[in-house]
Amino acid sequence: MKLFVKEVVNSIKHIGAIAPSSKYLANNIIRHMDFRENQIILEFGSGNGAITKQILKQMPSSSRLISLEINDPFLKHCENKFKVYSNFEIYNHSAIEFDSLLKQLEIDKVDYLISSLPLAILPKADLDILFKKIPEYLINNGSFVQYQYSLNKYKFLKSVFNSVKLDFTPINLPPAFIYKCS
Asked: DSSP label at 18?
């Protein structure tokens, strides 16, 4: 918690949260995932690893979790915290350019893309670039799962994806909406 508070003070524009994700939010997010063998899961913004931890606990060892985190203290924290998982990789890499990293890793498609990006405060140009690419990198029945603290990007996500389902986690600070998009 101390690390999270320090990084919020230093990087509020990039973090977009006032407290770490609760275990209730993390558990609710993974309820929207169907874990199977040999999946590739991409995570935008691992933060302090609350959601990362739940994904790693649930996914089979044959699957692969690739996390992107631009905040160096969070990146180092997650590198250390999850070093026992051989199927976990974390990169200091911008979500906006996730496609270049996937090309480097020779990955064409992902099964799930889990995002904690603060969409409400991202510039429109970045949102347009990001959401032009995301659907192209999901397998046919893949999903983009995003949590937010408001419904202000619901219409935007409906314009990008065929299906947008909403869920809500009241036991989180602040309470969070989960968008499952496919």
From this structure: S
